[in-house]
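For the sake of transparency, this paper describes our internal protein records without simplification. An entry from our holdings is shown next, in its original layout:
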Amino acid sequence: MRWSDKGWNFATAEECEYPPELCQAVARAVSEAYGIRRSACPPMRRKQKSRHGALQAAERATVGRQSRRHVRPNVVPERRPPTTFAVQRRTDAERLREHLGSVHETLRVAGHSIPEGSRINTVVEQKDLGWYGPDYSPQWVCEVALPWTEEEFFSKAVATPHPMEGEPVLPDHTKKKIFGILTLSSKEWAER
């Protein structure tokens, strides 16, 4: 049996030797016998893709095998760490939500100026809980990552060490092998 856009079918269902009704009836009988439910989506993959962490990617980069799945993070991030500010009016919050993501031109909302190159991450409504229940005057909290000035970015980039200057991340077994090779005598080296 195989999956198609019409559901589960035998591979021969589309061939001219068997009528489609017969194939559908046999496929239905087999699926009922084995408890296979008909669903609108294709079956899940049997083998899930493995996801490596940053440490494994760093190890592979130092020994020469680089993972093709991971993009190396920027040494100096494009923007400052996110900051938050509160907005009191719904219209201002909706205007900020319209601009979620990268800001392409300077945006002025509720007395705040968000410069070009910033990134609006979230706009979340919050209601305060007072002593006597909820306060019905909500506010919206906006999280924004502002860009560095050219001077700040340049000073951070200059202060960052070159990747070759840092200590490589090697697994213990690799370090032991390197140590073993470097501590061999010339006689032991010749015997290898």
